[in-house]
């Protein structure tokens, strides 16, 4: 195994975690890592004092460039845009709980409010705990400007401050109650599990049928969920797993993954539901 590959594989988990949080896409993050490795192989290692920082800088700049070019595409996206789900089949509940705060669908949607550079600097500082001197080197800006960007990003996100992640056992109990209410068609019980201002987001990307606008309010959301379940064939298979750090569902029928449903959990119920149906966003899970 070459020295380039040894270093790259050692840094891969961190690079993938950063690329995914920046891009909101498992597929795009993996493509970026592949491109980064091809360029990395051409570097002379003896000239690099900090190979890990060099790789992080390559991924950060590559992601910023992609975000800038993707902005127009997301603005013209059909219906709500949701991140590609990161299904964590080999992650323990405890590990998922630790990652939930910076990996949840709700958090990634909040990051969409930031411009690409703000997003990168904010993540490097708040999630990956880099010092400002390191961040300035990674993004090619001054330390003072990086501090301003972090302050600005926090101001953008402050009005939507996220509650603390709900512990895994509580999530399991809530999901069990949710599934029971759905299976029995109990509208009032389902409503009671949803926050009064609950929101349902469905991302079909214009490829499959999905709501073109978010659905607001626990009554409308509960009715929508029951109507959707009525359309799912009785032989459909629902698998419970960890999705972006929180407990969610993989829905299969016709031997294919048709939907990934994740939740924004509260201690006593569900704040938001995120249904990814766009087949392009499920392809990496096939």
What's this model, at a glance?
This protein has helices at residues 3-23, 26-40, 51-75, 93-103, 105-111, 116-127, 132-139, 143-158, 168-184, 187-192, 218-231, 279-282, and strands spanning 194-203, 215-216, 237-243, 246-253, 256-266, 269-276. The protein is α+β, with helices and mostly antiparallel strands and 286 residues long.
Q: Total number of helical segments? A: 12
Let me know the number of strands: 6
| Shape type | globular
- Residue fraction in strands: 15-25%
Draw up the topology in text:
Blueprint: H1 3-23, H2 26-40, H3 51-75, H4 93-103, H5 105-111, H6 116-127, H7 132-139, H8 143-158, H9 168-184, H10 187-192, E1 194-203, E2 215-216, H11 218-231, E3 237-243, E4 246-253, E5 256-266, E6 269-276, H12 279-282
Parallel strand pairs: 1-6
Antiparallel strand pairs: 1-2, 3-4, 4-5, 5-6
């Amino acid at each position: 195994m070459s020295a380039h590959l040894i270093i790259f594989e050692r840094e891969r988990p961190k690079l993938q975690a950063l690329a995914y949080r920046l891009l909101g896409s498992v597929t795009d993050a993996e493509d970026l890592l592949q491109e980064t490795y091809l360029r990395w192989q051409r570097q002379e290692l003896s000239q690099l004092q900090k190979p890990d920082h060099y790789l992080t800088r390559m991924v950060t700049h590559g992601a910023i460039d992609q975000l800038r070019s993707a902005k127009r595409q997301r603005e013209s996206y059909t219906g709500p845009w949701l991140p590609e789900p990161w299904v964590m089949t080999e992650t323990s509940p405890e590990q998922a709980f630790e990652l939930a705060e910076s990996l949840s669908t709700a958090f990634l949607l909040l990051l969409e409010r930031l411009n690409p550079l703000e997003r990168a600097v904010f993540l490097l500082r708040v999630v990956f705990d880099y010092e400002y001197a390191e961040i300035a080197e990674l993004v090619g800006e001054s330390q003072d400007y990086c501090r301003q960007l972090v302050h600005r990003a926090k101001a953008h996100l402050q009005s939507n401050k996220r509650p603390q992640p709900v512990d895994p056992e509580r999530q399991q109990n809530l999901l069990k109650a949710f599934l029971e209410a759905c299976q029995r068609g109990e509208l009032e019980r389902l409503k009671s599990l949803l926050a009064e201002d609950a929101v349902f987001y469905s991302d079909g990307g214009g490829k499959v049928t999905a709501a073109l606008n978010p659905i607001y309010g626990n009554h409308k959301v509960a009715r929508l969920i029951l109507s959707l379940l009525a359309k799912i064939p009785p032989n459909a298979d629902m698998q419970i797993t960890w999705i972006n750090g929180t407990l969610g569902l993989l829905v299969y029928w016709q031997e294919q993954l048709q939907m990934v449903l994740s939740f924004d959990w509260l201690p006593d119920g569900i704040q938001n539901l995120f249904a990814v149906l766009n087949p392009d966003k499920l392809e990496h899970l096939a």
